[in-house]
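Structural biology now treats backbone shape like a language. To illustrate, our science desk offers a sequence and the tokens encoding its fold:
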Amino acid sequence: MTRPRDLPYGESGLELRRHKRRRWCREAGCPRGSSTEQIPQLPAGARITMGLLDAAGRGRRDAASTVIQAARDLRLSWPTAMDTFRAVAREVTEARSTRL
């Protein structure tokens, strides 16, 4: 079971719990041994949902607020909020360069 962080909801927030299936490899030479299932909104090893990361990046772009405000609003660290903003900014600049 994992407890990834997701978008805040209300004053008390939500606690997301995800029960993942673990699959074991029966091959003797398997380097991994086991793996857990993944979904697009929560890739393997992720502790923050893609929805929360998307909201952080696009919210800064659309609301024209600062990265530190996004971090505070969504309870993220500054480096995480900045990484999401960079990803969204990269999408915008690449889209503009392909139109030229």
